[in-house]
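From the methods appendix. Each design record in this collection lists the tokenized structure first, followed by the designed amino acid sequence. Records were kept in a plain field format so they could be parsed without special tools. The example shown here is representative of the layout used throughout.

RECORD:
FOLD TOKENS (481 positions):
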């Protein structure tokens, strides 16, 4: 290191001449003195000896003094080296600090420019008490107030509809209580996304989907809160309109359809005026299609209710074995016509779960009707019902493991067209139909599985699929016991 090499050049040269400069020379000097004395004794006799002894007595302490001085000089040089070292280190620390500061500034600049570039979403940052510290152009646009009028001057709850932040039947809370209500769920779960009503500067009310997350400082301490909002006012209004439209249409279609089916039944069952075979065949086709329309209308209405979160269950004790037998009965005629065999394997003593009998029947019917319609002639459909165990990770097993819960397991297997593995993830999306269904021109609109999944989830259950294209499919529905 240069710092260690430097003392030779920095030692003060002016002090050097006072002492011999190198330790190696001290010993020869003393030896030279002693030799000189010996020579003098030999040459000059005893008188001179005394003089030489005196000179030698002075030379020895001088050499000792020189040794100490040299030691002190050595120590001083070492100290200087340390000082240099410290100076160098200090310099590099200062440089590192400057680089780090520059990087921090650049990062902050990037963050600010990103936040400022967001104009469609409001990004609002507050301190721990809700005082606004960050207010991006998106917030300016959405709420109609410039940053200068808000930052460090207003709390975020000023922009929230107060009735959403106070208990419905209690008194209105103060600003602190309102802010605590706003971040309560995010505090408990780490984040929260939901719709809130924002109040704009010009008095409009906006439905905003707000993601609330805590913000921490460099030490991991909580520094405040982030609120990222997307204006959903128009989207929510459109959703409401769509729901109203679907409900209205479904209702309006259902009434005439019920009337058509009712009169059809009267005509077909009229013993006084029996129909010809041909008439009966025509009217059977009318009836089948009217039933199909009725089911489609019912499915549409139900899907709209699920989407709107307006679907409720009427729970009671339900024997799943009876439901499975009922589904087989419903599918029997179609299966026989198509040449598909249906086998039922359910416990003779039944298997009772808590649930909505009508909805569970609908879920089971959907799975069985799919199995029958996606299985070509000569194929086999098997309905199996048994108890099993679901562990904490959701995996199903035949025996109880630690923390496992008992479940009723209904599986519907077929030897049909199957579903390509890449498409299986989208099966529970409304109107999705796999390529195997479209290719084989199997009729349907793609609502049955969405409905089945919604019913299963509402019962705290799970619905899984295993399928191999061209080989067959198994849907497994597990319900808590
Ligand atoms: N057992 C099955 N075998 C093969 N493909 C299936 C099976 N069950 C469902 N699918 C695939 O999943 C898609 C969605 O099923 P879903 O029941 O929701 O709709 P659908 O039967 O086509 O119409 P809908 O039930 O509304 O009359 C089907 O179109 C089909 O591609
Ligand atoms: Mg279906």
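DESIGN:
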């Amino acid at each position: 290191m240069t710092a260690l090499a430097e003392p030779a050049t920095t030692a003060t040269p002016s002090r050097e001449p006072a002492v011999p400069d190198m330790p190696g020379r001290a010993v020869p000097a003393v030896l030279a003195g002693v030799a000189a004395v010996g020579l003098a004794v030999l040459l000059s006799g005893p008188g001179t000896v005394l003089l030489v002894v005196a000179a030698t007595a002075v030379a020895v302490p001088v050499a000792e003094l020189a040794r100490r001085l040299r030691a002190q000089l050595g120590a001083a040089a070492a100290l200087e080296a340390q000082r240099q070292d410290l100076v160098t280190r200090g310099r590099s620390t200062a440089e590192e600090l400057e680089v780090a500061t520059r990087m921090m500034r650049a990062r902050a600049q990037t963050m600010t420019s990103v936040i400022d570039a967001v104009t469609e979403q409001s990004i609002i940052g507050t301190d721990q008490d809700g005082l606004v510290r960050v207010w991006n152009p998106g917030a300016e646009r959405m709420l109609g107030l410039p940053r200068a009028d808000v930052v460090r001057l207003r709390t975020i709850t000023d922009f929230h509809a107060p009735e959403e932040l106070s208990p419905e039947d209690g008194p209105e809370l103060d600003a602190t209580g309102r802010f605590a209500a706003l971040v309560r769920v995010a505090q408990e779960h780490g984040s929260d996304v939901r719709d809130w009503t924002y109040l704009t500067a010009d008095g409009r009310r906006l439905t905003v989907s707000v993601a609330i997350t805590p913000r921490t400082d460099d030490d991991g301490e909580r520094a405040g809160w982030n609120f990222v909002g997307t204006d959903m006012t128009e989207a929510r209004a459109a959703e409401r309109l769509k729901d109203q439209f679907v409900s209205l249409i479904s209702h309006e279609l259902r009434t005439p359809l019920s009337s058509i089916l009712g009169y059809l039944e009267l005509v077909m069952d009229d013993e006084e005026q029996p129909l010809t075979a041909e008439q009966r065949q025509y009217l059977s086709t009318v009836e089948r299609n009217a039933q199909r329309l009725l089911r489609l209308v019912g499915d549409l209405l139900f899907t709209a209710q699920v989407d709107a979160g307006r679907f409720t269950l009427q729970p009671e004790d339900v024997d799943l074995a009876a439901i499975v037998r009922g589904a087989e009965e419903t599918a029997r005629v179609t299966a026989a016509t198509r040449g598909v065999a249906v086998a039922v394997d359910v416990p003779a003593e039944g298997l009772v779960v808590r649930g909505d009998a009508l909805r569970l029947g609908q879920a089971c019917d959907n799975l069985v009707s799919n199995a029958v319609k996606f299985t070509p002639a000569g194929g086999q459909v098997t309905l199996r019902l048994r108890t099993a165990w679901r562990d904490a990770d959701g995996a199903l097993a035949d025996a109880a493991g630690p923390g496992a819960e008992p479940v009723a397991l209904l599986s519907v297997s077929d030897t049909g067209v199957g579903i390509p593995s890449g498409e299986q993830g989208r099966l529970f999306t409304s109107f999705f139909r796999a390529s195997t269904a479209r290719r084989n021109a199997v009729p349907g609109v793609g609502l049955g599985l969405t409905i089945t999944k919604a019913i299963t989830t509402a019962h705290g259950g799970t619905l899984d699929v295993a399928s191999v294209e061209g080989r067959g499919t198994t849907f497994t529905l597990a319900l808590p016991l």
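APPENDIX NOTE: The mean pLDDT is 86.
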